[in-house]
Design goal:
Largest sheet: 2 strands, antiparallel
Distance between the termini: 27 Å
Number of domains: 2
Strand order of the largest sheet: 1-2
Mean pLDDT: 77
Helix content: 55-70%
Number of strands: 4
Number of helices: 13
Structural class: mainly alpha
Shape: elongated
Oligomer: single chain
C-alpha cells in the first residue's frame, strides 16, 4: 500500500464522540498514538506488524508504556467501544478502515472516467443518428411543383417524451445532487454512483440514497457507502447480531502475547 503523508482527522467529530470523550486524557493520547501507527500500517486502519496483529510487547515498547499500564489502557479503550478487535485478533479503527475503502472506491471510479452506462448511451445515440438529407437539384420549370410537394403539414404530433424510471431518477438526479452538496465534483459523483450501482445493484442504491437524504449527514458519500454495506450485510445475514467491543475482545487480543 502506498504511503500517504496524512490521514483525515475531524476535530469536531473527535470532540463530539461520547465514547472518545469518556476516556481519560491519558487514554485519549495513547489512542491517538495508536491511530498514527494504524495510518502507517500495511493495511490502513489496522494495527499490523509483518501482516499479523502487532504483539502487545512490541506495542508497549513503541508507545513507551509498561505492559500493565498498556493492558489497562487498551481495556478501557475497547470497553468504551472506541476500537474493535477483528476476527484475526487485530486492533482496528473502524473510521479509518471505512475512509480507506472510500478512498479506494473514488480512485477506481476516477479511472473509469465517468459512468460507463452514460458513455455507451452517448455512443449509441451518435451511431443511430440518421444522415442529413441532401436535397436534389431541380430545374426552374419543376421547382414550384416540388416545393409544394415537400411542404410539411400545418400541424404535427409532438414525439412522445422519454420516460425515466423512478430508480434512475433517484440515482442520477437525487444522488448527484446529494453527493455534490457534500463538495464532490460532478464527474467524480457520477463515477462513484456508477461504481456503487454495479457493486450493490440499482434498487438497493436508490433505497440507500433516499435514506441518506433523510439523514442529511455532513459527508453524504461516506454515509451512503456505509448504509449500502449495512443493508447488504443485513440482507445476506438477516439473523446476525453485531457485538460491541468488550472485555472478550481484549481477552482474544491477550492471546497474541
Amino acid at each position: 500500500m502506498s504511503k500517504l503523508p496524512a490521514f483525515q482527522f475531524y476535530p469536531a467529530d473527535w470532540r463530539k464522540d461520547i465514547s472518545v470523550q469518556s476516556l481519560s486524557f491519558h487514554d485519549r493520547g495513547v489512542w491517538f498514538e495508536i491511530l498514527c501507527l494504524m495510518h502507517e500500517s500495511e493495511s490502513r486502519g489496522k494495527l499490523l506488524l509483518n501482516g499479523k496483529a502487532m504483539p502487545k510487547e512490541v506495542l508497549s515498547r513503541v508507545l513507551g508504556l509498561d505492559k500493565q499500564l498498556l493492558d489497562q489502557t487498551l481495556g478501557r479503550i475497547l470497553e468504551a467501544g472506541v476500537a474493535s478487535i477483528d476476527e484475526g485478533n487485530v486492533l482496528v479503527n473502524r473510521r479509518m478502515v471505512r475512509d480507506e475503502e472510500i478512498r479506494q472506491i473514488r480512485k477506481e471510479a476516477g479511472k473509469q472516467g465517468g459512468n460507463p452506462a452514460l458513455v455507451k448511451q452517448k455512443d449509441k445515440q451518435k451511431s443511430s443518428k440518421p444522415p442529413s438529407k441532401i436535397e436534389p437539384l431541380h430545374s426552374s420549370s419543376s421547382s414550384s411543383t416540388s416545393e409544394t410537394e415537400r411542404e410539411e403539414p400545418a400541424t404535427q404530433t409532438a414525439p412522445p417524451s422519454k420516460v425515466v424510471d423512478p430508480v434512475s431518477r433517484r440515482i442520477w438526479t437525487d444522488g448527484l445532487d446529494l453527493l455534490k452538496s457534500g463538495g464532490i465534483a460532478d464527474h467524480s459523483a457520477r463515477s462513484l454512483l456508477g461504481k456503487l450501482g454495479k457493486e450493490y445493484g440499482r434498487e438497493l442504491l436508490g433505497e440507500c440514497i433516499a435514506a441518506t437524504q433523510a439523514a442529511n449527514p455532513v459527508n453524504p458519500d461516506e454515509f451512503l457507502i456505509g448504509t449500502l454495506k449495512n443493508r447488504k450485510n443485513r440482507n445476506a445475514y438477516p439473523n446476525k447480531t453485531t457485538r460491541t467491543p468488550n472485555a472478550d475482545a481484549l481477552a482474544s487480543y491477550d492471546q497474541l502475547e
